[in-house]
Design brief:
This protein is α+β, with helices and mostly antiparallel strands. The protein has 4 domains: 220 residues, Histidine kinase-like ATPase, C-terminal domain (Heat Shock Protein 90); 138 residues, 2-Layer Sandwich (Ribosomal Protein S5, domain 2); 79 residues, Rossmann fold (3-Layer(aba) Sandwich); 115 residues, Four Helix Bundle (Hemerythrin (Met), subunit A). Helix content is 38%, strand content 21%. The protein is built from 21 helices and 23 strands. The strands form 4 sheets. A 9-stranded mixed β-sheet has the order 1-6-5-4-7-3-2-8-9, covered by helices on one side. A 6-stranded mixed β-sheet has the order 16-15-18-17-20-19. Helix 9 packs antiparallel against helix 10, helix 10 runs antiparallel to helix 11 and helix 10 packs across helix 15. The longest helix is centred in the middle third of the chain and has 24 residues. The termini are far apart. The structure holds adenosine-5'-diphosphate (ADP) and magnesium ion. Magnesium ion binds next to helix 2.
């Protein structure tokens, strides 16, 4: 029809050559993974076809038995992996096998760029995809025909800098990938070796993987296709007959975290009754590059009656659970379920509730039975739990119990449960302080009164903690109260109270002078009940903690207005001295009050309005101190 049949040669995108190079040089001792990658691509292609056929049954072309076939020619030293899935158009094949736009390899390259280190061992952490074919082959030919398309395309490359494209013949839809094996890799053209690899790596694939077997019957040879994998969806099988290694393989297939990644926890469950669905969820041990770059909305796939409907289905799990990977397979939802329907479906609400419960149960079990694993988990994903505690109203309490912080009592991380167990008799609340670091908080004046009473204080040092603490407020009837909040009330004896009032009564002039000097920089100036050793501090009437305020500003965010209260310690000698200076109308008083205010700003973790003025005043003080020297 006038279409030229000459091959066209095209260069690989530069990143492809980079991936190819890295794959070949870093995975040479792990060559056999190529088969799993190619089989997994074939299974993906079958998934895609099955999904599209729901609305376009004609795509099946009357052939609905979806299979993956392995065909070898020992004398020609070739292995062909064939599927009757969606196939690719010429444009698609050039795009998919000529650029790095797809998930596995792209994530890998990003990770590599980010680590700023060319350590090829990193590659073991990622699904490297199609290009792993070049671990065993020095030439790969792909013949593919898109479902619904009339023509086929042949893609050929020796895995160097270019590939070629030409029109080809193919009777029906699907893709055949023929590997011309390197001499040393001839073993992969042997059926026994392939059978071993399929059962080891690809047993979980839910389509039959068939191996061509030849039988001699007298003179004639017959060929038959033998299914070598179990070909049933792993999540539909009963737990007792699934090996850990099979779960791990499946996890690797889902998580794109590479060939030896293992999950920290899993939940496999079937729900029967008014609603039927199965689920298999994993908690990874590390964050995937997609997650780290904020590209992954969710990690749970939705299947309906074994058909993959949606990857990264947002309706199935709350946002904070986006680190969880897995599948849900519902028997009740319609195959052509839409996003809108998912959002409104009561069936989805039930599924979602179950998934959250399963994950929380698994995390609870990990926390109590495997504290070391939980610690690993928490380092990677603690911030997601915090996000959940702040946003998922229904599960807030269960999430809160999984959170950990450092504290004045604990050297490592501690939970609210452990905190409550350690609470002193009569201690009215759970106390915390928000700031930039443990070091910055340990010496904060705000903690003095709490320390004196023997109360533990949690150190909340992550930006998200402010948000968490605001939405938690209470656990098991115990209020969470910030040591920096204005409404912190500490009990004191009648004698203590009287002594404080007497001390304060003698300092009326300092108080009113401070009010005059600070003006509307603070909402109020008042006597403190929380200070023992420091002369003053700033507490929050309304709005964010000082350190959070600063973090927001650093991040270029709008800083919400807040109200602070300046508290003075009536039994501090500096204030008694100041009272005397006020009586004498000493002009230094205002300068001293400014210095007190600035140090209160610093100890609340906020930036000074005028650091230059602070430095000048400090220098003045130093001058006077050093005068006699
Ligand atoms: P990934 O599977 O992570 O996307 P791969 O390198 O394994 O990356 O595959 C690249 C792309 O090539 C796939 O996303 C898919 O679009 C296409 N592809 C690979 N193998 C097949 C196949 N057998 N049938 C159809 N498309 C395929
Ligand atoms: Mg792949």
């Amino acid at each position: 029809m006038g279409i030229m049949s000459e091959p066209v040669t095209r260069p690989f995108q530069a990143e492809v050559s980079q991936v190819l190079h890295l794959v070949i040089h870093s995975l040479y001792s792990n060559k056999e993974i190529f088969l799993r990658e190619l089989v997994s691509n074939a299974a993906d292609a079958l998934d895609k076809l099955r999904f599209r056929a729901i609305t376009e049954p004609a795509l099946l072309e009357g052939d609905s038995s979806l299979v993956i076939r392995l065909h070898v020619d020992e004398s020609a030293r070739t292995l062909t992996i064939e599927d009757n899935g969606v196939g690719m158009t010429e444009e698609e094949v050039a795009q998919n096998l000529g650029t790095v736009a797809h998930s596995g390899s792209r994530a890998f390259l990003e990770q590599l760029a980010q680590s700023g280190n060319k350590d090829a061992r990193l590659i073991g952490q990622f699904g490297v995809g199609f290009y792993s074919a070049y671990l065993v082959a020095d030439r790969v030919e792909v013949v593919t025909r898109a479902a619904g398309g009339a023509t086929a395309t042949k893609w050929i490359s020796e895995g160097k800098d270019t590939f070629s494209l030409e029109p080809a013949e193919r009777a029906s839809r699907g893709t055949s990938i023929t590997l011309h094996l390197k001499e040393e890799q001839a073993e992969f053209a042997q059926p026994w070796r392939l059978r071993e690899l399929v059962t080891r790596y690809s047993d979980y694939v839910s389509y039959p993987i068939q191996l061509e077997t030849k039988k001699k019957e007298g003179e004639s040879e017959t060929t038959a296709w033998e299914t070598v994998n179990r070909a049933s969806a792993l999540w539909q099988r009963s737990k007792s007959e699934i090996k850990d290694s099979e779960y791990d393989e499946f996890f690797q297939h889902l998580a794109h975290l590479g060939t030896d990644a293992k999950p920290l926890a899993r939940a496999h469950f079937k729900v029967e009754g008014t609603q039927e669905f199965a689920g298999l969820l994993f908690v990874p041990a590390e964050r995937s590059p997609e997650l780290r770059f904020g590209m992954k909305p969710r990690g749970v796939r939705l299947y309906v009656k074994r058909v993959l409907i949606m990857e990264e289905c947002e309706e199935l799990v709350p946002e904070w659970m986006r680190f969880v990977v897995g599948v849900v397979d519902s028997d009740d939802l319609p195959l052509n379920v839409s996003r809108e329907l998912l959002q409104e479906s009561p069936a989805v609400r039930v599924i979602r509730k179950t998934l959250v419960k399963q994950v929380l149960d698994a995390l609870d079990a990990m926390a109590s039975e495997r504290p070391d694993d939980f610690k690993k988990f928490y380092e990677q994903f603690g911030v997601y739990l915090k996000e959940g505690a702040a946003t998922d109203y229904e599960n807030k309490d269960r999430l809160a119990r999984l959170l950990r912080w450092e504290s004045t009592f604990a050297t490592g991380l501690t939970s609210l449960g452990d905190y409550v167990a350690r609470m002193k008799e009569g201690q009215p609340a759970i106390y915390y302080a928000v700031g930039e670091s443990r070091l910055a908080l340990e010496g904060a004046p705000h903690l003095e009164g709490l320390k004196k009473r023997g109360y533990e204080v949690l150190f909340m040092v992550e930006p998200i903690d402010q948000w968490v603490s605001e939405s938690l407020r209470e656990l098991d009837g115990k209020k969470l109260i910030s040591a920096m909040q204005a409404d912190l009330k500490l009990e004191e004896s009648e004698d203590e109270k009287k002594a404080r009032e007497i001390a304060a009564g003698a300092l009326e002039k300092v108080l009113s002078r401070t009010r005059a000097v600070l003006g509307d920089r603070v909402r109020e100036v008042r006597w403190s009940e929380r200070l023992t050793d420091s002369p003053c501090c700033l507490v929050i009437g309304r709005g964010a903690h000082g350190s959070v305020q600063r973090a927001l500003r650093d991040a270029g965010r709008e800083v919400p207005p807040r109200e602070r209260i300046f508290e003075l310690n009536p039994s501090h000698p500096v204030l008694r001295n100041l009272e005397a200076l006020v009586e004498k109308n000493d002009p230094q008083v205002a300068e001293c009050l400014e210095l007190l205010y600035d140090q209160a700003v610093l100890t609340e973790g906020a930036p000074l309005d005028d650091p230059g003025a602070f430095a000048r005043r400090m220098t003045d003080v130093l001058l006077r101190l050093t005068k006699g020297a």
